[in-house]
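Reader question, answered in our methods column.
A reader sent in the components of a multi-part assembly and asked whether the whole thing could be modeled at once rather than chain by chain. We filled in our standard form and ran it. Here is what they sent:
COMPLEX SIZE: two components
ENTRIES:
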Amino acid sequence: MAEIRMKPVDAVIIGFGWTGAIMAKELTEAGLHVVALERGAYRDTYPDGAYPGSLDELTYLQRWKLFQKMSKTSVTFRHSASDTALPYRQIGAFKPGEGVGGAGLHWAGQHWRVHPEELKMKSHYQEKYGRNFIPESMTLQDFGITYEELEPHFDFVEKMMGTSGQAYCVKGQVVAGGIGNPFEANRSDNYPLPPQKTPYPAYLFEVAARECGLHPFQEPSANVSQPYTNQYGCQMGPCNFCGFCSGYACYNYSKASPNVNILPALKQVANFELRCDCNVLRIDLDRTKKQATGVTYVDANGNTVMQPAALVIASTFAYNNARLFLLSGIGKPYDPKTGKGAVGKNVAYQTMSSVRLFYGPGKNLNTFIGAGGNGVALDDFNADNFDHGPLGFVGGGPVWCNPTGIKPISGIPVPTGTPGWGKGWKSAIKDNYINTASFEVHGSNMVYADNYLDLDPTYTDSFGQPLLRFTFDFKDNDIRMVRYITERMQQVARAMNPKSIQTSVMQIGDHLDLRPYQTTHWAGGVAMGADRDTSVVNRYLQSWDVHNVFAVGSGVFPVGIGYNPTGLATALAYWSAKAIREQYLKDPRPLVDA
Amino acid sequence: MPLGISPARRAFLRDALAMAPAAAAAGTGMLGATLAKTVSAAGAPAYRPAYFSSAEWTTLNALVDRLIPADQLGPGALEAGVPEFIDLQMNLPYGYGALWYMHAPFVKGASLLMGYQLEFSPRTMYRSALAGFEQAVQALHKQPFNLLDEAAKDALIADLEHGTLRIGDVPPVDFFTQLLQNTHEGYFCDPKHGGNKNMAAWRMINFPGARGDYTDWVEQYGKHYPLGPVSIG
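And here is the structure of the entire assembly that came back:
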């Protein structure tokens, strides 16, 4: 029983990252009294991004000041159900965030849409490659929504963030001489700002890729190329390429974040309240279990509080929504033995590889220059942009040279054979720090019957609640996919004419290694879809089981995609908010018949 | 004879090292000019460790001196203040393991792929491992680590790195990983944290530190960046 009971509000939002902030803005515009609960601390450009104190690699990228407090909570991992899951004790492979702005405060700012066929992976692959092409253990599903339905929301988010890029095709017409991405889907409008400048490593990549017959383009960046004011009146300053991007709050209002792009407008309205250091324990349900009555949380003083609300928005980070639903008893938990149930099903990561090019002294690539979303990319190997028929795997990924600013503690790349310490190491870092380029393959990661989320039986957080357990490993399909793309990209590496090339790519049979940083792009766990047996939320992101609960974030993806998830997750949040405003609020009910 | 240090200088250093923590900062692997600078610096007030004991301090200094030795390219770990940095870190929440998930149960013998699974905080790890390491060295060489020659020292560090030297309760690879990580941190951090003294490590690799604005440099392809580093302080 909660110690404190608050006055009822119209809507409570759990987690104040990108999707929580979008929901707060949309629902307050609709006149609702909205309370947002964030488990972490208040964060803002001042003081968290203040110059010069913010440009501190030790504090922000080694002591993780803006990231999740691992001492309070974490997750557990096991490669398969025959293992015992162990806690993720130190930040390594992925960097969970917390605090106002969430991961959206300290992300890099690579801002993408989606390839239309990724929204219907299952039906697309079956139609094009035949029913037998998809392996039986690969549990692909369609989103239940089309790119055309989402397009206006992709457009709105780009304008909300000030995304700086060049469109290829606007309203069916190729624009700007076709210098954009020829693989991107049709758009209703261009980006709000032109692309950022291209640093030297990305320029070399672009020239080489073009020489090899590929189609490089300046990638769309949420680090603005010019001063900008968005639809909400929020202001941004042009990015200085300071190189302290991912992991940091931007000191210059250049990187789009909920704090810069939405919160200033929200602060102006009386019907919005943000409560920090409030950790939601569960969504409370009535006796029928078909309606939420609000949420129970622990506040900054350790009191247990019940916040009644007519509408509950679950906007925790990615996989955490699955945990929230499991702890709250919403939806049927996925059972890997029977394949029944959908909460926790279909968790996806990304399958990464990297190629480093060493030039040695005198090249002056000046790798300290960078911005998180900046660089040159190519989509020739993403989604179904290439013929999978003879290759025998599903999926693909974008490839990019993304100079974000390399800082010394996090690891200066050195050529193969360099000792890890001592005189030889020292000589190598001096010769190579500013003379090394790199590019990455950001491969998709398919979903499988035996990769899933549930509650750990042993480990708990500091509130005594079970941690989320990942049963997850990389599978042959995805390793073959990333090896194929990485091999195809070797020609680009050679065309960049370095002294040596160093490639890091998984071998068949390799397992997830939780130690080295890979990416924080997790998806899945509360899949959206058209079929209530295989999804947790419907096409409007409304729970099939509890109609006044909506889930947002990458947790609703039923499959992983090639691009970074923020663009799709934020567009889906606006799409869901529109359905709430136009359909749900006037007549609260399930919006989709099962 | 490696590194061009005369036997007389080497003997001087070895004796100095045995005597006091301040002299330990001189190390045994440095060349001419750097050596002279450090020996004279040893006359200045020495850093007194707040966490490490005198014996631990000697071992720690000797270890990091080999991980990043001083040479003509740039500062070594000692000159950069790495031991001082590590000592300061031990009294911060990080040192107590407050940045890690440290709930039980702890499982021994876990796959390395699962990441860190030990019960040690940085403080307790150093306390156990430094003593355990010296015991192992004593058993093998009948001398403390800091009195060995460079080749012997490097061979022992390689044993830690490859997990072939038992040092008591802390698995050697975990200790090596922790030590190397803290050494890099202390070598390259902003000087406000007590390491990277005078930003010499940044200067060596041409990293401009907290400059924060490269707008005019983005498109100057291949041009050497001429400005030195700046720090936050």
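What stands out: The two ends of chain B are 42 Å apart (CA to CA). Chain B touches chain A through 61 residues (CB under 8 Å).
Send us your own complexes using the same form.
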